[in-house]
Write a structure and sequence with these properties.
This protein is an alpha+beta fold. 34% of the residues lie in helices and 25% in strands. The protein has helices spanning 6-28, 36-40, 47-60, 63-79, 111-121, 133-142, 208-223, 242-250, 256-259; strands at 94-104, 125-129, 149-153, 161-165, 169-174, 182-188, 191-198, 229-234, 254-255, 281-285, 289-297, 306-314. The radius of gyration is 21 Å and the shape is elongated.
């Protein structure tokens, strides 16, 4: 049947273009060029225009368009499902309970609020992105007794990063990147655990290649692990980005938020006119850990929520 409203049919088609493009990238496991990586951050929300496309297609009375719209909507919903199965693969009895806090303090502006959160929550490991020199000094002084060990990139602005630990650290190193990504090995209950802070560049226009390259270096670090790994920070990527999924797969890692059934809780942006719409702050764990719980904390002065995760480090089979 010919459409009664040709303009309605055109409007339905236009509403389906971007969701179809993003679903195609998801199926092909590609992030594509600008503006695709930026739009992938909004992938679940594109179910709304896809649904409107279905309604307009029905109103236009074009059967082929209705079928196409339903396929695009179904595929968009499918692509928005959590990336990984909710599996627990850890073996052995718990050796230690570990509380981890990962926070981006936005050029150090959230230092005071993070200090209060650390005092209140008492984590054993703290990963802090965009922690400038003043932030690093303040946190080290405030928790000299509770978290006396640190690995850091001491720099100004967004480049500075600090990893604070209740456990002694060794084998410190840094993943080469525009912003600081320090790492070290902690011995927890007699088990060496590799700790790595992640903070690649964001995929803004003009630096998507750099974003992809830095996530690739994180992927290499995950792939090269020889024991338990805890990888946390501001990844500037969500589960809808192929580059982030590659990190998970290379290191056989699980997103703690997924294991806690919270993989769609947004962590950014916490400032400005837009509500938070995407989770780009993550705590990733190897199969040596199980997740007991996760919470997302508002940090005054920062445009990110912090991720607080309770883990069990488990022994061998």
């Amino acid at each position: 049947m010919r459409p009664r409203h040709p303009l309605t049919a055109w409007a339905a088609g236009l509403l389906l273009v971007v969701p179809a493009l993003l679903v195609g990238c998801r199926v092909l496991d590609e992030d594509g060029p600008t503006p695709v990586p930026q739009l992938l951050s909004l992938l679940p929300w594109f179910a709304v225009p896809a649904a409107l496309g279905v309604l307009l297609a029905v109103a236009a009375r074009r059967r082929a368009l209705v079928f196409t719209a339903v396929v695009v909507l179904t595929a968009t919903v499918w692509a928005s499902l959590p990336h990984q199965p909710q599996l627990v693969t850890s073996y052995g009895l718990p050796l230690a309970q570990v509380r981890v806090l990962a926070s981006n303090v936005e050029f150090g502006q959230g230092t005071a609020a993070l200090t209060e959160a650390i005092r209140r929550e008492r984590p054993q490991l703290v990963f802090v992105s965009e922690c400038d020199r003043a932030c690093g000094r303040a946190l080290s002084a405030a928790f000299a007794s509770e978290l006396p060990h640190r690995a850091s990139v001491d720099a100004d602005g967004s480049v500075g990063s600090v990893l604070l630990s209740a456990y002694p650290l060794r084998d410190e190193g840094v993943i080469p990147a525009a912003m600081g990504m320090p790492g070290a090995t902690a011995v927890i209950a007699g088990v060496p655990v590799r700790l790595q802070l992640a903070h690649p560049l964001p995929p803004v226009p003009g630096q998507v290649d750099s974003w992809r390259r830095e996530l690739g270096r994180i992927e290499d670090a995950a792939r090269d692990r020889t024991g338990p790994l805890l990888l946390a920070g501001d990844f500037n990527a969500s589960q809808d980005h192929a580059a982030f999924r590659s990190v998970l797969e290379a290191g056989h890692l699980q997103d703690a938020a997924r294991l806690a059934d919270a993989s769609r809780t947004p962590t950014w942006p916490m400032e400005g006119s837009l509500p938070p719409f995407v989770q780009i702050d993550h705590v990733l764990v190897s199969e040596d850990f199980t997740v007991r719980g996760i919470r997302f904390l508002d940090v005054a002065g920062s445009d990110h929520r912090a991720v607080l995760t309770d883990l069990d480090l488990r022994g061998g089979r």
